[in-house]
Design goal:
alpha+beta; 639 residues; 30 helices; 15% strand; 6-stranded antiparallel beta sheet
């Protein structure tokens, strides 16, 4: 895993590429390189920071230049050995054993047609000296990021947005619609970027820049099309598919470890990893007892120890008790965009601990919940369909009774009440609206009340984009419609984004075996009734996991890779909340309404509504906005 950057037909492209490459140095502390070449009437510059994982020798150094092609590549290719063998049988000679060279030679032989054949996580730029064309590519599922800015026929790109913002800050404008989207979701959808002039190359797509200034785009893989093809095709041997993906994700010339929460997904991958790499290490987290009690968090640590003991795993336990006031602004800086999920702190601290122990690669169970309907919202939305059949005369008093219940007392929170209130907030709504409301922060009226009145159009735009994405499919199955929407929105917009940025801030590569094109096909071959049975989600994956895990781990209640957010908000961060609500830049700029924020604080303090996540994200957004404007980004309200 690495950091990449570059420019094409951009003024002072060489010095700018040097600065961009330096800005992503944490992604690749093992080496650096730069390439320059004439491209028509302009120049191309490619930069690279290397995190050595496969082929640690100089033959894997980048940018890799060979016979008229230059490649700067960030990623891992899990079918490199098969592609290498095929290319060798066609007469191709290789200098080393890196997957970078496989990508370069595959491009030379097949061009764009090689892209659907690449199985892995990647983002890269490849330049053809003969044609003067630069092509940017991003992997099928959006695991690895690629940000870019186009201007006057030129282009600049980098692995992280902060690199572009640091170099171009004075010419960028904050996109208020993206900020509204971040309030709704607590993250920015992959289809949007917080700066108007910047964009994220979409998953499964490529962009070609030509010397005449023209740009061509194309899509080589679509998860929507993959899901539609898979529906009704008949189930695969899911246990075999997951094991094959896990085995491939273990290939490395450096130590590999796993995240192990004690839940199903991480336990399943850890057991499989231990089978193929006996004695592998794993990392798990615990929290201060007082915080865990207040949050009513399950004892995941006990289950992690059980899995480690059973499979001979060397378990490292990390207590998460950070100085949150100090950690919050650091994480905002690492995450590039306003992402309000405190789980990013867990990822960062675990990766830091692993890196200090000499581990460069971690395996994560991320993606299983999205693909196999493992979140509570999936079950809740299925239950909501049944709930709507209950006569209104019975539903009305139930809503009133739950509304009166507190979600927390002075000493502890009540998870069951939080879940009940959340369920009733969407249970009466139509399918798409119910699904959106089951995992987003606000309904339309709440969001309109929170933001400036002149952002009402942005609110409706963001809601319409969700509706359009949800409707953009031809699946017959309710559960798989939700899984597809999650795989296009929640997975790349939140989970993959924070995992990449938090892990790479610690110079650690995180691999996600469930987020794999073959696993995706297997997931969408399964009908909804195989995924959700009664009030249990992820049933098909549980059945597959029984091939190696004991039933008490497979069928235990869902674990949490989260943080004691309510304890932090009510104790560590309470003064900062008051400061931001009373005198923050979001309020003073007019983006957010002070009265609405004060109501959120009051509702949370009274214990009647759980607003901890809402307020955490407001703090995240406040710090991000301060940083953006301080670095020169323009506030469009003041423009």
């Amino acid at each position: 895993m690495c950091g990449i950057a570059g420019t094409y037909h951009w003024p002072d492209g060489g010095p700018l590429t040097t600065r961009l490459t330096a800005a992503v140095a944490h992604r690749g502390p093992d080496g650096t390189g730069q390439y320059a070449q004439v491209a028509g009437a302009g120049e191309v510059h490619l930069g690279h920071r290397r995190l050595s994982i496969v082929d640690l020798s100089p033959s894997g150094a980048q940018p890799m230049v060979s016979d008229g092609l230059a490649l700067t590549y960030n990623g891992e290719l899990y079918n490199a050995s098969e592609l290498r063998a095929e290319l060798q049988s066609a007469g191709v000679s290789f200098r080393g054993t890196s997957d970078t060279e496989v990508v370069l030679e595959a491009w030379r032989r097949w061009g764009l047609a090689c892209l659907p054949r690449l199985r892995g996580m990647f983002a890269f730029g490849i330049f053809d000296e003969r044609t003067g064309e630069l092509v940017l590519v991003r992997d099928q599922l959006g695991i690895k990021p690629l940000f870019l800015v186009r201007r006057n026929g030129g282009l600049v790109f980098a692995s992280e947005l902060k690199a572009l913002a640091g170099a171009l800050g004075g010419t960028l404008h904050v996109d208020e619609t993206a900020l509204v989207a971040s309030l709704l979701y607590y993250w920015v959808p992959d289809s949007r970027c917080v700066y108007r002039e910047a964009e994220k190359l979409a998953p499964g797509t490529w962009l070609r820049c030509r010397p005449d200034g023209s740009v061509e785009r194309g899509r080589y893989w679509s998860i929507r099309e993959a899901a539609e093809r898979a529906e009704g095709a008949g189930p695969l041997d899911l246990a075999a598919v997951v094991e094959d993906s896990t085995r491939r994700h273990l290939v490395a010339d450096v130590p590999v470890a796993t995240f192990l929460s004690g839940g199903l997904d991480s336990s399943y991958l850890t057991a499989l990893a231990a089978k193929h790499r006996p004695g592998i290490s794993a990392y798990t987290i615990g929290f201060r007892a007082a915080d865990a009690k207040f949050e009513a968090m399950p004892d995941d640590l006990r289950h992690a120890r059980q899995v480690a003991a059973r499979f001979g795993v060397d378990l490292h336990e990390i207590e998460i008790a950070p100085q949150v006031l100090d950690m919050l602004p650091r994480m905002v800086e690492h995450l590039d965009e306003p992402i309000g999920d405190p789980a990013a702190i867990n990822t960062y601290l675990i990766c830091m601990a692993a890196r200090e122990a000499g581990v460069k690669v971690m395996l994560s169970g991320m993606g299983a919940d999205e693909l196999f309907a493992g979140y509570r919202k999936h079950v809740a939305n299925v239950l909501a369909v049944r709930y709507q059949r209950v006569p209104e005369a019975l539903r009305r008093p139930a809503r009133a009774a739950v509304d009166r219940l507190p979600v927390a007392s002075a000493s502890r929170g009540y998870r069951s009440v939080r879940f009940a209130k959340r369920f009733l907030s969407f249970a009466d709504l139509p399918e798409e609206s119910a699904f959106r409301r089951s995992y987003t922060m606000y309904d339309r009226l709440e969001l309109l009340d929170l933001v400036s009145p002149d952002l009402a159009g942005a609110v409706d735009t963001v809601l319409a984009e969700h509706a359009d994405t949800y409707a953009d499919q031809g699946l017959r199955d309710h559960v798989n419609r939700m899984c597809l929407a999650d795989s296009r929105l929640f997975l790349p917009g939140l989970n993959l984004a924070y995992t990449d940025r938090a892990s790479m801030a610690a110079s650690t590569e995180v691999r996600v075996p469930f987020v794999d094109v073959e696993v995706v096909e297997a997931a969408f071959r399964l009908p909804g009734p195989r995924k959700i049975v009664g009030r249990s989600g992820k049933v098909a994956l549980k059945q597959a996991a029984l091939s190696i895990l004991p039933p008490e781990i497979v069928h235990r209640p869902k674990g949490l890779f989260s943080a004691p957010l309510r304890a932090w908000m009510s104790r560590d961060l309470a003064p900062l909340v008051r400061e931001v609500v009373d005198d923050g830049v979001l309020v003073s700029s007019g983006l957010l309404r002070r009265e609405a924020l004060q109501r959120l604080v009051a509702e949370d303090a009274a214990g009647q509504q759980d607003r901890a996540k809402h307020l955490w994200h407001v703090l995240t957004l406040e710090h991000w906005y301060r940083n953006a404007t301080a670095s020169g980004a323009r506030d469009v309200r003041a423009a």
